[in-house]
Design a protein that fits this description.
This protein is of the alpha+beta class. It has 19 helices and eight strands.
């Protein structure tokens, strides 16, 4: 008897229990909790790959000659590029699954290229305490190939729409590279276009040690800030909130597509759109329910997100922080004279709220308890909304007026330079980045316990606050 069948039977028993005990609220809640647990386990198990001759991972450990098509924009770093291959054919047999290929930076390949590769397929292996296998599994990648012999066979074999989208993204990347020097160009490419591989390793280490690695990944915080900025701008120039919401929804869709629709941005955009809709129809109190439903749908599609996807965790927590704490922060911040201008206050409040629930995870995943992480974030986070605004305008205007691109990026350059200088100075403080393999679970429990007490105390002291 398989474990999947046992879980299926448990799910049926829970449903029967809920049906017969529907008048006993406490027992129904208990059965719903157990049902969710069993259902989640069942969904995760059936999402795991089946290792048979029709799957690419079946050939791990073998030298093969295969043909396939690049199915997404290649990720290009300083010295190498990564290709994701699909529609694979081995020995004239169509094979299911995807293959991740690491190869030299040149010659450069593009989305839609059909390639012939001669390589040794390998199963992803973990290294230095990092579960690389689980990291790739969330994208359904179970086979990798390092520096194979590659022959280009054909071009333009992919989807026409995505091909044009990736050409636009590459154009934006070229504008950034032409207008800024390194490391600022690589930093902006990561923050705006999701090209994290463009950042050199030294700067990546500095950001990790100072607790700033989270700002170089397009996540729920970035999407939330961008959405909020657009809504504020549209409302200030005369749009109604309803009209502003739909305009922002369209612009977010365009932006996410333009940057190549990275999974983190798609999830964050979907979550933000659903929660924004709850606010739009006046059901603010139900916004968390909408967010939970959105998370449920995403986990049904890909259950690996909950355990293995940092972006999903941070997106969910960032938007949850905005829903829960924005009314509190807004109420108290209104008393400061330097925050009298509401758009500026809204931007700062939203940025702070997006950090409240994500903080322990940021520390855990990106800095392993950086001593100066709180200071570095306080010094840097205010600049993030400004960078997003100025860089968006600079990219659009540089597309139209390329001769003025360097001048248009001057404000962005100084803001990025400020972040790099702050991180570099703080990183030189002795013992700023202790070598810890993990953060004790007590750290998480203590932080959220204190946060819960604070929230309940504020809510009780200001009855009717929400």
């Amino acid at each position: 008897m398989s474990f999947e069948f046992i879980l299926f039977v448990c799910i049926i028993l829970c449903l029967i229990g809920i049906t017969f005990l529907k008048n006993k609220k406490n027992l129904v809640i208990l059965f719903l909790f157990v049902l969710s647990l069993f259902f989640g386990m069942w969904r995760y198990i059936i999402s795991l790959p089946i290792n048979n001759i029709d799957q690419i991972q079946y050939y791990n450990g073998q030298n093969v000659v295969l043909e396939g098509i690049i199915n997404k924009n290649p990720g290009r770093g300083i010295k190498s590029q990564q290709l994701e291959i699909e529609n694979i054919n081995i020995n004239n047999k169509n094979i299911n699954g995807k293959l991740l290929v690491a190869t030299d930076l040149y010659p450069k390949f593009n989305y839609g290229d059909r390639l012939r590769l001669k390589c040794s397929l390998e199963e992803p292996s973990d290294f230095e305490g990092f579960s690389y296998q689980r990291y790739l599994a969330r994208y359904n990648l179970y086979s990798i190939c390092f520096y194979p012999k590659i022959d280009a066979l054909e071009t333009d074999q992919g989807n026409v729409f995505y091909a044009q989208v990736f050409k636009i993204k590459n154009k934006l990347q070229n504008i950034i590279n032409r207008s800024l020097e390194e490391p600022e160009a690589g930093l902006l490419s990561a923050m705006i276009l999701g090209e994290k591989k463009a950042i050199n390793e030294d700067l990546r280490v500095i950001f990790s040690c100072t607790g700033l690695s989270h700002i170089i990944a397009i996540s729920g915080m970035h999407i939330s800030i961008l959405s909020f900025l657009l809504i504020i701008f549209l409302v200030e120039i005369g749009f109604s909130r309803k009209c502003a919401y739909w305009v922002v929804l369209f612009l977010l869709f365009v932006y996410i597509v333009l940057i190549g629709a990275p999974a983190s941005a798609v999830r964050a955009g979907f979550m933000g759109a659903m929660v924004g809709f709850a606010f739009l129809i006046g059901r603010i109190g139900k916004a968390m329910n909408v967010l939970l439903f959105t998370a449920f749908v995403l986990l049904m599609i890909n259950p690996k997100l909950l355990r293995d996807d940092i972006g999903f965790q941070l997106s969910f927590l960032a938007i949850s922080g905005i829903i829960i704490f924005y009314p509190i922060i807004e109420k108290y911040s209104a008393g400061f004279n330097f925050l009298k201008y509401k758009p500026i206050r809204d931007i700062l409040n939203m940025t702070v709220c997006a950090q409240i629930l994500t903080w322990p995870f940021i520390v855990y995943y990106f800095s392993f308890f950086s001593i100066v992480s709180i200071i570095s974030n306080l010094l840097v986070l205010w600049a993030l909304p400004a960078i997003i605004v100025f860089s968006m305008f600079a990219l659009l205007l540089s597309w139209i007026l390329p001769f003025f691109s360097i001048l248009l990026f001057v404000p962005v350059y100084f803001l990025l330079k400020y972040i790099v200088v702050v991180a570099s100075v703080l990183e030189k403080i002795p013992f700023v980045c202790p070598s810890l393999n993990q953060v004790n679970i007590f750290y998480f429990l203590s932080y959220y316990f204190l946060l819960l007490i604070f929230y309940l105390k504020i809510k009780k002291s200001r009855k009717g606050f929400f």
